[in-house]
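Structure, all two chains, one model.
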Amino acid sequence: MKQQEFFSSRWALIIASIGIAVGTGNIWRFSRIVAQNGGGSFLIPWVIFLLIWSVPLLIAEFAIGKSARMGPVGAIAKTAGKKFGWMGAYIVFVSAAIMFYYSVVTGWCIRYFYSAVSGDLFSTSEHLAYWNEFTSGYQPLLFHIAAMVLVALVVFRGVTKGVERVTKFLVPSLLVILFLLFIRVVTLPNAFEGIKYFFTPDMSVILDHKVWLNALTQNAWDTGAGWGLILTYAIYMKKREDISLNAALIGFGNNTISILAGITIFSTVFALSSVDAMQQVSQSGPANTGLTFIYLPLLFSRISESNLVNMVFASLFFLGLFFAAFTSLISMVELSTRTLIDTGIKRKKAIVVVASLGILLGIPSAIDLKFLANQDWVWGVGLILSGAFISFSIIRYGVDKFRTEIINGFGSDIKIGKWYNYVIGVLIPIQVVVLVSWWLISSISWDPEWWNPFHAENFGTVIFQWAIVLSVLIAMNKFLVKKTLSENSLSER
Amino acid sequence: MDLSTIITMVVVLGIVCGGLGIFIFKAFKYEKLKSKNGKE
């Protein structure tokens, strides 16, 4: 049977993929990390890692998905060999684990958008107390369920009628919203100081290894490279579609949007903050939310004398944040759904299973911020392993063969040179080893009981959860691969 | 604004936003070419 669904055009695929890459991380994490790492000093390595981490892995994901026409389990088994299907299953598991709490975060965005529209957000000046009251009640659970149901409705309709149609509206709308906010805040008095800080390198930290490792981490987390999500959308690209140019467009497009969001946030903070602006930008707050849900509402209340104008800009900001989160969540749900489809389950049944599990397994994160922070930590670092497995499968296949036959094969607009062999075969594995070691070794110093697997953010909890998941998946490898690669499960149902 | 800020701004915006501009231009060019070839 032939595959039935494809993205209708190159631009539809690119817009949907930009929707994957641009998430809340571009808006709240990027600004915070730039502020903590010396402004412009961070931006230089961040650009370098775009070129040697994000774009090569995006190319790899597009190529694997387009050639294998299966979700990560089948795709990795076909590329690296049947013995390594568990690596694909790990990629699926990590994205699913992130989906469970990302749906909660999407729910927060819906709630804060509603708060801004209704004016409730400006009824208080105590935004930390407002946030604490919200997160300690039942509302995060309700909004998490609402987010998951909305996404399920989109994915239920399939790739062309659901994912493509919705992202074609949401991604351009997000860009318009970001641009409107950008124009407004850069014209505020003192906003230029924020832009200046954003681009001024702090020479004392420019060679600090932490700045470079944070820049690599930011690229690994916010471009969507190595998550398996692009691989899943690539299943639905037409044979005549190009790989390399599309991957470059997504990597560079994502980082351009990060710059736009960063300038907007820095300008807002420097123009409207009465206390130390820098301290506010670099605040993490509970579950890394400090800047977005606690300090920005306060700053939005100061944009103008008119409450209505402030409400409009705050509403636009949280609507944009919701669109960014929602389009990323769609891809996470599609990845899990596609994995089930590959095992012979029909799409409609698969989405019911994925959404039900998503709602159920997101509950702990919805009711307990510590649990959410734990999952964010464990699977955030876990994502780097996903990138390693994608790189490994290409090395197993033969990097040069992969480059010439698949990346530069039918449909390619631009040809990728031999530099790619070196990046995938040498640089990506080195980056993975350095990054995983750095995060794990650093985490030992965060907690005196660093070995305790039941603490939220330490070394022990990562090793404990990774070990369980990897052992189960390796043990189930034969079953998973057999179920996925069986003859009658090769088409979209 | 000092020189290091200007240089960083030019390098970062030049590579990231400039790169995006070039890739968008190329994608349009190849799409036009593909649709032209498809019609023939």
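The helical segments of chain B are 3-39.
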